[in-house]
C-alpha cells in the first residue's frame, strides 16, 4: 500500500476512534450526573424530596434556566402545606395498600430482606 494512503487511512481511523471514545465517555458522564442529581433529589424528608423531584422533572422537561428553577422551587415550597392538606385524607388508604403489597412481597423475600422491608415500612409510616 502506498505510504501516503496508509498514513491518511490511519489518520481517519484514529479520528474515528477518538470521536467514538468521546461519545461513549460523554454518555457515561451524562448518565452519572443525572443519577447523582436524582439521588440528591431523593434524599431528605418527604416535602423536600417532593419539591426536588418536581423541580428536577420540570427542569428536564421545560429546560428551565437557573432563575426559573429557583423560582419553581420557591413556589413549590410555598405550596407544601396545601399539598400536604390535600393528600392527608388519602393516608389511611395508602398505608393499607402498602401493607397489602408488603404481605404479597414477603413470600418472595429472604429473611434478611424481610428485616429490610420491615425497616422500610416503619420509615414509610412517618412519611
Q: What structural keywords apply?
A:
127 residues, 85% helix, 6 helices, 0% strand, 2 domains, mainly alpha, elongated
Per-chain topology:
Layout: H1 3-42, H2 46-62, H3 66-78, H4 80-87, H5 91-105, H6 111-125
Helix pairs in contact: 1-2, 2-3, 5-6
Summarize the structure.
It contains 6 helices and no strands. It is mostly helical and about 130 residues long.
Describe this structure in words.
- The radius of gyration is 25 Å and the shape is elongated.
- The model has no long low-confidence stretch (mean pLDDT 90).
- Helix 1 packs antiparallel against helix 2, helix 2 (46-62) runs antiparallel to helix 3 (66-78) and helix 5 (91-105) packs antiparallel against helix 6.
- Helix content is 85%, strand content 0%.
- The chain is mostly helical.
- It has helices at 3-42, 46-62, 66-78, 80-87, 91-105, 111-125.
- It has 2 domains: 21-78, no CATH class; 89-127.
- The chain starts with a helix and ends with a helix.
Q: Structural class of the helix and strand makeup?
A: mainly alpha
**Helix count, DSSP H or I runs of 4 or more residues:** 6
N-end to C-end Cα span? 72 Å
Strand content: under 5%
Average pLDDT figure: 90
Spans of at least 5 consecutive residues whose pLDDT stays below 50 are none
Write down the domain tally: 2
Amino acid at each position: 500500500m502506498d505510504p501516503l494512503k496508509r498514513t491518511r487511512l490511519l489518520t481517519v481511523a484514529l479520528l474515528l476512534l477518538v470521536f467514538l471514545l468521546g461519545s461513549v465517555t460523554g454518555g457515561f458522564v451524562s448518565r452519572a450526573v443525572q443519577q447523582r442529581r436524582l439521588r440528591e433529589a431523593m434524599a431528605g424528608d418527604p416535602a423536600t424530596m417532593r419539591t426536588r423531584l418536581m423541580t428536577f422533572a420540570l427542569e428536564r422537561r421545560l429546560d428551565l434556566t437557573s432563575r426559573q428553577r429557583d423560582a419553581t422551587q420557591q413556589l413549590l415550597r410555598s405550596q407544601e402545606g396545601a399539598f400536604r392538606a390535600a393528600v392527608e385524607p388519602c393516608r389511611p388508604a395508602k398505608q393499607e395498600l402498602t401493607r397489602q403489597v408488603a404481605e404479597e412481597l414477603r413470600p418472595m423475600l429472604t429473611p434478611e430482606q424481610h428485616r429490610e422491608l420491615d425497616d422500610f415500612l416503619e420509615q414509610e409510616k412517618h412519611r
